[in-house]
Amino acid sequence: MAKKSVAVHTNATKVLYQANVPYAIHQYEQSEAATQEQQGLHPDAFDHPERVFRTVVTVVDDEPLAALVPVDCVLDGPLVAAAVGGESATIADSELAAETTGFPANAVSPLGTKSDLPVLIDVCALDFKTIYVSAGEEGFTIELAPADLLTLTNARTAPIARRL
Known about the structure:
single chain; 164 residues; YbaK protein; five-stranded mixed beta sheet; four-stranded antiparallel beta sheet
C-alpha cells in the first residue's frame, strides 16, 4: 500500500519543482519479493499497480536510453529497437544504469538524470490521468501526469511492454 511521504528531494524532484509541474511524492515499503527487473518496485506495494512504471536503462545499438514500462510487464527489446529505428536492444547492467543516470540502479528516475538520455514510454501511460515513476531514491515514487513527463523528458511513446 502506497502512503504519503513527508519529503524527499532528489534531482528528479528538483526538475519538477523548477518546471513548476504539479506532482506528489509517495513512499512505499520495499519488497524483497520484487525481482531485479522490477527495479525494487513491487506491484503489490501500490493501490493502482497498473499506473506504476519502472525505468529500465536500455542500450539500443550501443546508445543508452531510458525505457518506461509498467511494473507488471516486461520490456520487449525488439519493440524498443524498432521504436527508435535501431537494430537491437538490451537491458543495461546495473553498473551502467547507475553510471549513466546518477541514480541507484534499483531507483532510476527518468527525470534529472546525470546524462541526457532519450526517453521512451510505453503508450499505455496515456491511458491514465497520473502515473508513478521512481523519485530516484529507494522507497519513493513521484506521481505526475503522463503529459508532463513526456514534456519534461522530451519522450516518445510506443508499445514497448509485454504482459507477464
